[in-house]
Amino acid sequence: VYETGKTLSEVCERISPGIATGADNVFVMDAEEVPSQLKSWMYPTISGKELEQLDVGAAVQSNSVFLCPYREDGTLIPEDDLGEFGTWAEIHETRLKNRSCYQKGKRKWYAWHENPPMEDILQEKILFRDITDEPKFWIDREGTILPRHSVYYLIPKEGIDIEELAHYLNSSKVAKWLQLNCQRARDGYLRLQSTVM
């Protein structure tokens, strides 16, 4: 990276897609619409579409939040301990039980499609859209954003300057390389997948 001859995988701890809930229409809300009793259950989140509305270099902020039934270590909170969250989730129980992750017996009815690696995600990281016409990279400097499945996140290794890395990723040289090496989605959009990155 930055002309050192190293690959991105050598300077990163993790390059992964964001969180899949299997029911974003249930778990994602506008922060202003979250009932007061559920405020302690929310984390800021961002979609690829929302991310692309921001200028590169701008602070990553979003009005959207996940209502999250997980602890900060990524473990699912037991159903008996859900309290107000459980009362709210029961309203959506039928919808949540219709997801394949529940139908196949892999998840509890109120869990997400996959357990979020909270300890990895809740730190400073670089975010980028999974399908895009123009590769762009943003820094979540606060480390508080839980990206949705349409956003990838990249965690640099200790000692790697995240600002310098983001600057390099936003360079024309990287854009040209990605244009040549990424798979294409519909209408010629680039797919910025972990294996390619």
Description:
The protein is α+β, with helices and mostly antiparallel strands. Helix content is 26%, strand content 20%. The chain is built from nine helices and eleven strands. The strands form three sheets. Strands 1-9-5-7 form a four-stranded antiparallel beta sheet. A four-stranded mixed beta sheet has the order 2-4-3-8. It has a three-stranded antiparallel beta sheet with strand order 6-11-10, covered by helices on one side. The longest helix is centred in the C-terminal third of the chain and has 10 residues. The model has no long low-confidence stretch (mean pLDDT 91).
Question: Which short descriptors sum up this protein?
Answer:
alpha+beta; 11 strands; 9 helices; 4-stranded antiparallel β-sheet; 4-stranded mixed β-sheet; 20% strand; 197 residues
Number of strands: 11
- Strand content is 15-25%
Mean pLDDT: 91
Summarize the amount of helix as a percent range.
Answer: 25-40%
Please give the order of strands in the largest beta sheet: 1-9-5-7
Structural class: alpha+beta
Radius of gyration: 18 Å
Detail the poorly predicted runs: none
Largest sheet: 4 strands, antiparallel
Shape: elongated
Termini distance?
Answer: 12 Å
Taken in chain order, the helices and strands follow as HEHEEHEHHHHEEEEEHHEE
